[in-house]
Amino acid sequence: MRISRSKVAIAALAAALAIPALGQDKPESILPPGFGDPTPPPSAPRPRAAQPNRPDAAPTAARPAAPAAAPLVPAPLGLTPLGPGGPDAAPTPLATPVPTVAPPAATDFAAFVRADMPAYARRSLAQVGVVGPAQGAMATDAFGRANGRYLETLMRRLNPPVASRWVSIVLRRALLARVDTPRGVNGADFAAERAWLLVRMGESVAARAMVQAVDTEDYTPKMFVAAMQAALAAGDPAALCPAVEAGATLGAERGWILARAMCAGLSGMPAKVQPLLTQARRTRLAGGVDLLLAQKVAGTGQSGRQAVTIEWDDVSQLTAWRYGLATAAGVEIPATLLATGTPAVDGWRALAPTLAPNVRAAAAELAAARGILSSAALIDLYSAIDAGDDQSVAEAGIARDLRASYDASSVAGRADALKRLWDEPKTDEGRYARLVLTAGAAARLPQSLEKPDIDRIVASILSAGLDPRAMRWREKAERGSTAWAMLTLIDPAEPVASYDEVSAYAGANDSDGLKRRMFFAGLAGLGRMSASEIERGARTLGVRVGREDSWTRALKTAVVDREPGTVALLSAVGMQTRAWRGVSPEALYHIVTALRAVGLPGEAKMVAVEAMSRL
Predict the structure, then answer these.
(1) Cis omega (within 30 of 0) for bond into 161
(2) Measured between alpha carbons, how far is 482 from 505 in angstroms, rounded to an integer?
(3) What one-character DSSP code corresponds to residue 463?
(4) Which residue among 135, 241, 419, 448 is least packed, with the fewest CB closer than 10 Å?
(5) Are 142 and 564 in contact (CB under 8 A)?
């Protein structure tokens, strides 16, 4: 039986800033400066003055003070190192420079930008985005009355990937949405900040789409920088061509000058290529592998590729420039060099159409665990591998096991294939990725299966949000097991739970009681417990759900103002760690509570379940 195919979800892009791996024994602060320290609540709510949604409107005092953020400035050739050890890497938020967050001064591009369309066809900057509610994104008022500079600061200081796959999915929906431009910022600048965050999340295709949602005539210096990074992350230097002349004239990014040569070659004008490359070499604009890669891309538009050989022996650091041009030109990047990149590179590679399916597979699994790819998209990729000619690669064995999990001759054979897929990975992220991969197959298993691995079956089904299918296992789940706890979190037939339900949990791998505290936080955040039962659980388990700081108050303000986009952004701020053990039960409680309160109850349930399945 052939595995069903589906469209691949928009995804991936890479970040210039590297995040240290976080896997501590106990939760630690994962908030930007200014969000961590508890402060007494104000004696009275501060008024929020209603102001028109215009770029020059002054910020109000209704938002908590946000930490200053480094401006989005161009790096040489767009070549910020993609991994630790680079000169511009910022290992922690505290190490980030702290200049002003004011947007760059307005630049008059009319002198050098040619109008390519009539005035009636121009898109307004009052509302910028890629998709609307009909395509699964948030509504135009997703950010409500939030101040634009405050939102940009949060985006800039966010260090993806975040712990939760589902929080990442919700954040992508907010960033891609066609929303009203918040007050205090330019529409193109706000789109640039969203594109830059999508790049760092690994969502290269989404970032490129966000850049293309703004007319090139409206590009600001910030947008030129974001456009360069998005195009490189997507491995699509041709995406630079509509704005290449303006970008090169701006002179703030040397990559745009080299892009003129590449775009000339891609446009079939080889006579212009060599003079531009010669000038770049003579003026030492670029050299070595960076210049050779640009020369190779420029040659792809001529009759046959230029005979340019790329040698990586002397290259010690992967950059966005090297990744993007090598991917576009079909040049293989050594595994040792890929290892110097940030996690965002996995997302870029997972979505790169020029890479063979078996080459993309490992990165695609990690991208699925981070919310960049859907379960159906990952199945689609392995279907292509299974249908390919080369059945000797390791990925073909995974594809065969996946096919067997659907069409083995017996139920036991299907369950055995699932077990092989689940047992193979050696990392927590890899194991969760396999749960995502097998969600559809696990949902097809009958409840009559003898000795089912019910914890992983339920976790796999819920990793793709298939809660009605998961509820069929309710009667088979033993009270106190992890499967029972996950199903209790999503069970609509039990609207109210007592602390006794929490104390009954005795799931595996919970020697320190963290999963029990997460179970309590999830139930409380979903509104499934009364105030007295929440107080009882908080006191017994030591979970301080009533503790307030500037981050919790920011979440509450966004909830009161009905701003799901702001809630999504702040939720990601509270989960800036790759390991779920770095997320505290208190943070989970506030995030689940806020998501539910702004009309995202399904996503709130999935985040609570994810905490149980990934610890």
Answers:
(1) yes
(2) 8
(3) H
(4) 448
(5) yes
Query: Whole-angstrom Cα distance, residue 434 to residue 457?
Result: 11
Nearest to 370 by CA among 378, 381, 380: 378
Given a contact cutoff of 8 angstroms between Cβ atoms, the answer to whether 360 and 352 are in contact is yes
Calpha distance 226→78 (Å, rounded): 10
Specify the pairing of strand 127-128 against strand 179-180. Answer: antiparallel
- Which parts of the chain have pLDDT scores under 70? 1-117, 251-253, 301-306
Axis crossing angle, helix 254-266 with helix 270-282, rounded to the nearest 10: 160
**Which tokens go with 541?**
């388990």
Do residues 291 and 281 lie in contact, with contact meaning Cβ atoms separated by under 8 Å?
yes
> Which amino acid is it at 491?
D
Task: Of 263, 185, 254, give the one whose Cα is nearest residue 225.
Answer: 254
Cα gap 605→596, rounded to integer Å: 8
Percent of the chain with pLDDT over 70: 79
Contacts 24+ apart (CB under 8 A), 466-472: 466/439, 467/602, 467/605, 469/443, 470/443, 472/447
Length of the chain: 615
Q: Which residue has the tokens 């590679």?
A: 349
- Distance CA(304)–CA(50), nearest Å, equals 60
Helix (H), strand (E), coil (C) string for 298-333: HHCCCCCCCCCCCCCCCCCCCEHHHHHHHHHHCCCC
